[in-house]
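Retro notes (design track)

What went well: tokenization of the new backbones is finally stable.
What didn't: we kept losing track of which sequence belonged to which structure.
Fix going forward: every design gets posted as structure first, then sequence, in one message. First example under the new rule, 97 residues:
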């Protein structure tokens, strides 16, 4: 089956349009990942409480800032902090001194 010039042009324009749309989607997806510091693999969960322990005492290996989620202490490095600051009611640490 042979296409006339008008049919071939239409198909070509559709293909170009679809490639542009697909490229835009990929670009936006990668840009979103960069804006959150490449933290797509980190957890996006709102904490119940965010503590910053400023109490004087012995130096320990435990981090001074941590979350309470579901009644358990959770360390910050597993979580998407920029996302939490932007999307959660608890978005700043509560200082304990």
């Amino acid at each position: 089956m042979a296409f006339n010039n008008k049919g071939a042009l239409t198909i070509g324009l559709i293909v170009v349009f679809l490639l542009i749309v697909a490229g835009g989607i990929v670009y936006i997806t990668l840009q979103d990942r960069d804006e959150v510091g490449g933290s797509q693999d980190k957890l996006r969960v709102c904490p119940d409480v965010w503590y910053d322990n400023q109490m004087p005492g012995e130096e320990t290996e435990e981090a001074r800032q941590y979350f309470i989620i579901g009644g358990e202490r959770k360390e910050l490095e597993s979580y998407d902090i920029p996302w939490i600051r932007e999307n959660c009611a608890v978005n700043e640490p509560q200082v304990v001194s």
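Added context from the reviewer: DSSP finds two helices and four strands in the chain.
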